[in-house]
Amino acid sequence: MRPAEFAPEDIIAAGLDLVASGRSVTGFALRQKVGGGNPNRLKTVWDEHQASSVSKPVTQVALPVELLTLLASANESLLNMVNNMAVEMHRTAIEIAESRVAEAMRKASEMTEQAEKEMADAAQTVERLEEALEAEKGRVMKLTTELANEAEYAGRLEIELATLKERMAGAEKGNELVTKVDTLQAQMELLMQNMEPQPTIQPAPAKKKANKPANLPV
């Protein structure tokens, strides 16, 4: 059985589809695209189409002088227009760049000024804190000195209090001794009074009673 024949138009259409899809046009690719046929014949039909579609060189024809003059004038006008457009675009670009640079410099100046103010404020704050710290150190040193003096004074008071307690203890003992001496002296005086002779008293006409001895103090 002979293979199916396909019209050249179908083969060329298949080749164009392959080119449009970015694939290489081969006999087997054409066979797969058209659904059959001899790959060699399909490739031959495609190659013949490619060869016939190559453009032939155009014969140069001399243009009239008037047309050449008009073309030259048009080229010059077009060149001037392009040149003017380029100059204007360059000038605009420079203006935009200068504007952006000026804006950036302005913002940078503002940021620098703000940073300087903040640094000045921070420096003043640090200075005030340092002064407060020095004052606090001086107050702490003063309090420490006063505390040391108070501690020393308290120590002296403690020593004096201990000495006074010893003296008071001695004084209490002395007072007890003085009290005892006074008591003994009083007892001796009373004893001496009792030992003095009694005056003679005429008794009443009654029976005499013997006098009891006086009680001596212990």
Give a quick precis of the structure.
This protein is mainly α and 218 residues long. It is 76% helix and 0% strand.
Task: Annotate the secondary structure layout.
Elements: H1 8-20, H2 27-34, H3 39-52, H4 65-195
Give descriptors for this structure.
single chain, 218 residues, elongated
Protein architecture, described:
With 218 residues, the protein is mainly α. It has two domains: 8-53; 77-192. Helix content is 76%, strand content 0%. The chain is built from four helices and no strands. It has helices spanning 8-20, 27-34, 39-52, 65-195. Helix 1 (8-20) crosses helix 2, helix 1 crosses helix 3 (39-52) and helix 2 (27-34) crosses helix 3. The longest helix is centred in the middle third of the chain and has 131 residues, at 65-195. The radius of gyration is 72 Å and the shape is elongated. The N and C termini lie far apart (176 Å). Residues 209-218 have low confidence and may be disordered.
Arithmetic mean pLDDT: 79
Task: Estimate the helix proportion, in percent.
Answer: over 70%
Shape: elongated
Tally of separate helices = 4
Major sheet description:
none
DSSP, total strands = 0
Tell me the radius of gyration: 72 Å
Distance between the termini: 176 Å
| Range of strand content | under 5%
H/E topology pattern: HHHH
Structural class: mainly alpha
Query: What count of structural domains?
Result: 2
Which segments are poorly predicted (pLDDT under 50) over 5 or more consecutive residues? 209-218
